[in-house]
Amino acid sequence: MSVPSPLSAPVATEPPIAEHSPSGPFTVSGYVPAWSAPPAATGAPDSTLPATPDGPAAAFTPVVDLDSGGVIAVHVTADGRLGAGAADVSATVNAIRAATEQEARLPLVLSIPLGAVVAGTAGLAPVHEALRVGGRRPREVILVLEGNLAAEERGALLAGLDGLRAAGYLIAYGGLGARHLPLDLLADAPPYVIVIAGELMDRIPRDPRRAALAEALVGMAKGVGAHVLAPAVRDEAQLAAIRGWGIRLAQGPLLAPPDWTPAHGRVHVPVPIPEATPMAALLGPRVSEFLLPALTLPMTAQAEDVVAAFGTEASVSSVILVDDYQRPQSMIDRSRFLLFMAGAYGHALHAKKPAHRLADTARLVPKTTPAIAAMQLAGQDADRVYDDLVVVDEVGRCLGIVHVSDLIRHVANTPATRA
């Protein structure tokens, strides 16, 4: 998944003018980030991470959709300060800077210390600022909480999570199954993604007990409406196991080499071995079960911004144009847009003009819509049957997209599964 070099992210030297909010784009529970906050200091690099030419040592790991074989997000890890406390976010900030240098335009997955969220919003200011400077919006970022939670920290963590969600961040719990994280937290603060602990994945499927624990976590995640990410997938036996449990998102050495970068694009996903699936499909799944991260751009984006966005990843099928509140305004289909731009004088006439001139109306579906109803909506316009559907939350904000082909595949496989 790669193409023309993406546009460099704008680097702001002054606080942006708050067009839609008096507190700017990154407001967490009333906290306004200090635009002039100095960057976090960087410690000595970890020898396990390759150093980028102009920034901290960092590693890029693609998050792969096993069904489509496409990269839907990039997990970025980087060095932090040596001997820093449990609330230090320097490693997260360095990861954001590394992603900016690599011009990674796909959604980012960033690890953040659980202690930093517990400590309060002030300590998270460098993260908000680094994203602002890199031209990234919270809705494009999944924050993976790493670490153990003490009983007395629970209230502070829930308050911190409320603030991050209010700002638009997607939340994930990392290391589930091997961390001191109470499972009822999944009910009190349901995450967008749960990440199975690498310690469990290392011994799956050879250790039946740990495999049973991992499978139970998958069932729990489905019960609370969360996605599951399987990390550190090293061999095809592990891949077959997680596929059998219904896990769709994975990352690891089997899928991409250790030196993978966003510029490499493509990954390798082994073809599954056909076998009877023992688990029957749930009756009437909702579109949220097929949800994928959306690649969004502001309504003010130019056509050349969309060309660059499509060029970063071959599996990106659409770009959603959103307003200041992340509400979808229109959608640009990859095939139609690139065909139009490739026509006579297409690039010369439209590259510097607003992209919404070449966009179509976004087809919106609430996150609770059944898959069958979503397919009926897709079939209402014969010219756009296979256009992506845009999933929105209760207030109309973009949560992601759904490929119509995924819905069709599910319906096609349902009778065989039940038989």
Features:
419 residues; alpha/beta; 13 helices; 17% strand; globular
What fraction of the residues are assigned to beta strands by DSSP? Answer: 15-25%
The geometry reads as globular
How are the strands of the biggest sheet laid out side by side? 1-2-3-4-5-6-7-8
- Report the span from N to C terminus: 37 Å
H/I helix tally? 13
Unreliable spans: 1-53, 276-283
Amount of helix:
25-40%
Q: Total number of β-strand segments?
A: 14
**Helix/strand order, N-terminal first:** EEHEHHEHEHEHHEHEEHEEHHEHEEH
Mean pLDDT, rounded to whole units?
82
Radius of gyration from the CA trace? 21 Å
For the largest beta-sheet, the strand count, sense and barrel status come to: 8 strands, mixed, barrel
Structural class: alpha/beta
Briefly, what is this?
This protein is 29% helix and 17% strand. With 419 residues, it is α/β, with parallel strands linked by helices.
Descriptive account of the structure:
The protein is α/β, with parallel strands linked by helices and 419 residues long. Helix content is 29%, strand content 17%. It has helices at 90-101, 114-119, 125-133, 154-167, 185-188, 198-202, 208-224, 236-244, 303-311, 334-342, 346-350, 371-378, 404-418, and strands spanning 58-65, 70-78, 108-113, 141-146, 170-176, 193-196, 227-230, 249-250, 296-298, 318-322, 328-333, 364-366, 389-392, 398-402. Helix 1 (90-101) packs parallel to helix 3. It starts with 57 loop residues before the first strand and ends with a helix.
